[in-house]
Amino acid sequence: MNADNQIDDDRQLVGDILAGSEEAFRRFIERYERLVCHLVFRLVPNPADQEEICQEVFIRLYKNLRNFRFDCKLSTYVGKVAYHCAINYLKKRKIPLYGDRLGSGHDGPGEETSAGREGICLKTPESIALESERNILLRREIKNLPPIYRAVITLYHLDEMSYREISDILELPEGTVKSYLFRGRKLLKEKITAQNEPEELWI
Amino acid sequence: MDMNHLPEETLQKIAEGKRPTDKAVYRHLDHCGQCRESLSAYRELLAGLQDDRGFLLSADFADQVIQKSGLRREGVPGWLDTFLLVASICSGLAVTGYYLLKSAFFENIGNVVPLFRVEWHSLPTSGISQNGLMLIFAFIILLFFGLMDRFLRPGSPPRTR
User: Fold this and answer.
1) A·B CB contacts under 8 A
2) Which of A68, A73, A169, B16 has the fewest Cβ atoms surrounding its Cβ within 10 A?
């Protein structure tokens, strides 16, 4: 679908939702739940709250769609609302957005459980198991990054958004987004390389 | 370019699939095992970052949101919704048919109008035929029953945190 068709489709969808169509709202949820889920799950550390925040995002979107003027893409607007809901959650719990958790290499027991739960892999060969292990490790390290880094990395790699879209969602200059992305990836690479090295000595 | 080692930024770009224009970068990678390892680590990292397993919402997520949003009215099953709509249309048509068949439109409207303290003959009906008035009346009845359907299904406000 090209950009113009996407905008027309989004306009139609929003119009139908505002007209009270449950079916249209369901399509809207299905279209954007992946984006909302990625952002919220990555930013909200407590698994028990994640789905509830996702619901809150869509309810807030439903209430505010009337005010959406199509001055940006609908996906950007959805991302912005999801980001703000997650950030409000973090602020309420006094979790620093830009705070430095980079030095802490260890997780609490809750995070360990969560990472293990996420890492379910049905493939059996050893190489796949190793890859799965690396992914679990990666998820754990992502959780140790400050929220703003996590948001940038998630939007760029999981939702394949451009720097421009990410800067609109996070309300940061494009240069800052690039910088967070670069630094976040560098930190992750260093952490993972450092954790892999001692194991490899034993092999 | 300082060719002791490639800058991290360059390695990240290559890992993303962006081809550097500077041939020196390739030459360096051919000779520097450390940069090749670093590039390989970045490639693995980027592949891992695109893995979106674990982002799962419950199967009835959309239903829960719709319920909480108030878009679907609580307590009214689908069949009752349809029944109310059909009943509204049938009632409207029945009442309209009654007035049309009995030719009692003006006699009955004459009984209703005084309730609103309006003089029937003073209504600005000039230019509208009797059939036209009957159609307007039928439309009003249909509209009334249509709205009654809405009044019968009160929606509860959404409860959000």
Assistant:
1) 97
2) B16
Q: How many C-beta atoms surround the C-beta of residue B59 within 10 A?
A: 7
The per-residue pLDDT for range A69-112, each reduced to its tens digit, is: 888 899 999 999 999 999 999 998 877 776 644 444 333 333 33
Tell me the one-letter amino acid at A150: R
Is the residue at A138 inside a domain? Answer: no
Task: Of A54-68, A115-129, B18-32, give the range with the top mean pLDDT.
Answer: A54-68
Q: Is residue A131 part of a domain?
A: no
Q: Using a CB-CB distance cutoff of 8 angstroms, which residues of chain A are in contact with residue B50?
A: 157-158
ipTM: 0.76
CATH number for the domain spanning A47: value is 1.10.1740.10
Structure tokens at B55: 């982002």
Number of domains in chain A: 1
B147 touches chain A (CB under 8 A): no
Q: Which residues of B touch A185 (CB under 8 A)?
A: 12, 42, 45-46, 49
Task: Report whether A95 contacts A147 (CB < 8 A).
Answer: yes
DSSP tag of B37: H
B45–A56: do the CB atoms touch at under 8 Å? no
* Assigned domain for A133 exists: no
* Domain membership of residue A52 as a residue range: 3-102+145-202
pLDDT of B100 higher than 70: no
CA distance B61 to chain A (A): 8
